[in-house]
Amino acid sequence: MIELEGLTKRYGEKLAVNNLTFAVRPGIVTGFLGPNGAGKSTTMRMMLGLDNPTAGDVRIDGKHYAQLKDPLTYIGALLDAKAMHGGRSAFNHLLCLAQSNGIPRARVAEVLDTVGLTPVARKKAKGFSLGMGQRLGIAGALLGDPRILMFDEPVNGLDPEGIHWIRNLMKSLAGQGRTVFVSSHLMSEMALTADHLVVIGQGHLLADTSMSDFIEQNSRSYVRLRSPQQERLLDVLHEAGITVVEAGNGTLEVDGGSPEKLGELAATHQLVLHELSPQQASLEEAFMRLTAETVEYHAHTDEPGMTPPVQEPPLARPGWGESWDRAKDEGAR
Ligand code: ADP
Ligand code: MG
């Protein structure tokens, strides 16, 4: 269980994370969704004690990260796996991590097997492909057999096979009763993996809901109507007790309407229709609607010529120090 209470991070003028309160529960995959720049990585870094909150609090099973003894056995994280590991072999990289965290040596071979890297265990990690680097990062996260796992945009830049593998891994980890927290800027990705959804925009909490509720509330079907006689059409629809939304650009939307009925109604009143089309709003659209305001707000407040964010030096923390590479994260946006 991860609990956030009023978690806030300010970088100068910029409120990167603004008063976030939510909990990440065990046994399910919780998706952490938000557009680029929403504050996902900053939040995750604070959860791992890699960045200090300006205000508020994060607790891992009731404790602050710094209070955890052998933290890798509580929480494993993949922050930025795009960064390549150094000249050590995959095996030695994991062995060093294990030794500095009180984890038995035998775990190294086990996690290499889990992520499918056994055949290349003795190869230098810097020659690894993106997908292999990602798997090595995940092996590091799994090393301490932690009850809590955190993945920051794990599928970014992976091939379909790698993406499929990561999705299944996250589901099986949750199936074992672990807490799995995974970020993405893609609704389509979350729809496939997450059981629960936490959505943020500009550092604010926008939604904290089960995936099924989110789908139910947002995947509305409607009929789109356009008519050169829009005023009359509106009157006719109102008289028939049909609720209409004026969607701009001369289009009307009728939630859950039947195109047959609407077409016949228009015909009865001799109204010309230029469009009568059943529509299904995608989850992606729902996500865009939800975050639209915060994105606009962003565009308004960013001063022209504002300098890019200051990069923080990499932190020497076993487990993710080596995979920490802000520059690449920025470059991937
Ligand atoms: P996400 O991971 O959702 O894309 P981030 O947490 O990386 O978002 O960034 C949130 C906001 O905080 C962005 O506007 C980003 O530019 C800013 N930011 C992140 N890290 C720093 C930093 N070290 N210094 C200044 N601003 C930062
Ligand atoms: Mg990020």
Automatic annotation (TrEMBL):
Residues 306-316 have a biased composition (Pro residues). GO terms for molecular function: ATP binding; ATP hydrolysis activity. It comes from the Bacteria. Residues 323-333 have a biased composition (Basic and acidic residues). The keyword Nucleotide-binding applies. PROSITE patterns: ABC_TRANSPORTER_2 (PS50893). Residues 2-227 form the ABC transporter domain. Residues 300-333 are annotated as: Disordered. Keywords: ATP-binding, Nucleotide-binding, Transport. PANTHER family: ABC TRANSPORTER, ATP-BINDING PROTEIN. This is ATP-binding cassette domain-containing protein. It comes from Streptomyces antnestii.
